[in-house]
């Protein structure tokens, strides 16, 4: 049986803004250096274990709301190449829990340790801590991007309102 893992990160600022960003295009909030893959749900994302980053093929589902949690299915596989056998396959859920204006990112799922039975033993002894640290870093990176995405979406919305030809002309006004 593959090990399960769960990590959480509290969001800074208004969680409602983070939720709006989380529900739009993942390019807005995936970590830096991410790029679209071959299909709309596919991405190439670096996972960081300390100073070493490994590229994975990541697939994200559409956002689904269940009570206070909006989640997306998530799974990744290592990209072929150097070091690919060192990254576990992962399947789980990436979620954003919103209670009032407080938000929290959640990532939980199962991963398959590399290297067969030896990898399972290494995971029990050491690698589980590295996996947790890697997922915490991923959530921290997403948290940072969501924080910036809030601002970028607000600016984009304001820019669209200011340049929308259907908006009525706002002439000079007198102060009340």
Summary keywords:
eight-stranded antiparallel sheet; 32% helix; 176 residues
Task: Please explain how this structure is put together.
This protein has 176 residues and is α+β, with helices and mostly antiparallel strands. The chain has one domain (4-155): START domain (Alpha-D-Glucose-1,6-Bisphosphate, Chain A, domain 4, 2-Layer Sandwich), CATH 3.30.530. It contains 2 helices and 8 strands. It has helices at 15-22, 116-163, and strands at 4-10, 35-36, 42-49, 52-60, 64-66, 69-78, 89-99, 102-112. Strand 3 (42-49) and strand 4 (52-60) form a beta hairpin. Helix 1 (15-22) crosses helix 2 (116-163). The model is unreliable at 167-176 (pLDDT under 50).
Order of helices and strands: EHEEEEEEEH
Low-confidence stretches: 167-176
Mean pLDDT figure: 79
How many helices does DSSP assign? 2
**In CATH terms, what is the fold-level topology?**
Alpha-D-Glucose-1,6-Bisphosphate, Chain A, domain 4
Helix content: 25-40%
List the helices and strands and how they pair.
Elements: E1 4-10, H1 15-22, E2 35-36, E3 42-49, E4 52-60, E5 64-66, E6 69-78, E7 89-99, E8 102-112, H2 116-163
Antiparallel strand pairs: 1-8, 2-3, 3-4, 4-6, 5-6, 6-7, 7-8
Helix pairs in contact: 1-2
């Amino acid at each position: 049986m593959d090990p399960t893992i769960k990590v959480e990160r509290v969001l800074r600022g208004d969680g409602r803004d983070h939720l709006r960003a989380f529900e739009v295009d993942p390019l807005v909030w995936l970590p830096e250096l991410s790029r679209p893959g071959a299909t709309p749900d596919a991405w190439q994302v670096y996972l960081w274990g300390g100073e070493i980053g490994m590229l994975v093929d990541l697939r994200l589902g559409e956002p689904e709301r269940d009570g206070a949690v909006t989640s997306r299915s998530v799974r990744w596989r290592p990209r072929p190449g150097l070091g690919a056998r060192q990254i576990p396959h992962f399947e789980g859920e990436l979620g954003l829990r919103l209670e009032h204006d407080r938000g929290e990112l959640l990532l939980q799922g199962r991963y398959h340790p590399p290297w067969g039975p030896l990898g399972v033993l290494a995971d029990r002894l050491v690698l589980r801590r590295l996996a947790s640290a890697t997922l915490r870093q991923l959530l921290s990176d997403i948290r940072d991007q969501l924080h910036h995405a809030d601002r970028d979406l607000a600016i984009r919305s304001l820019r669209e309102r200011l340049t929308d030809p259907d908006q009525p002309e706002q002439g000079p006004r007198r102060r009340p």
